[in-house]
Amino acid sequence: ACSSPELCERSLTGDSLQPAGPAIIIITAGQxxxxxxxxxxxxxxxxxREGRLLVLSKGQPFGTLFxxxxxxxxxxxxxxxxxxLRAGIPIITSGILLLDQRWWAARVSELHCGSKAVRVERxxxxxxxxxxxxxxxxxxxRQALVGTSNPEKDWRSRAKFISAELAAxxxxxxxxVAANAR
Length: 182
Known about the structure:
The protein has 2 domains: 1-60, no CATH class; 62-172, Glycogen Phosphorylase B (Rossmann fold, 3-Layer(aba) Sandwich).
């Protein structure tokens, strides 16, 4: 098990789907008053036994956590999306998709940095024509982690490119205070 993000190895190497070390699963979101479901408790206990769950007792800024990850499955709000783009990692947008979430998912898709918006209940859907077809989330994760031979449409390559562009555009004013003061 990982005791801190700095000690966790990347879950995949190169263009392979073979684990190089433990795949780290991070579960975030919800409110303190939201009780975990029995399924979530069971899955969390299973991941913990396997040494694949990174548990942080208190919140971590996305800007600290995201650069340690290979892909984000997020709700598509401005905070998650902007921090994932800054970290240079692909974004799979899912959830109930309210307000700006669909808009940000469309922007991410147009930039070829991640998926279009996918409602959470559609993530486990399979192509009905093939019983052995992977679920939608497996296909999206494969696209995010393995990519394509076309660098213009490869989510990982594009996310890294956009991250570099963002970094170059804000040099010396990372928090935007100077620009806003003008």
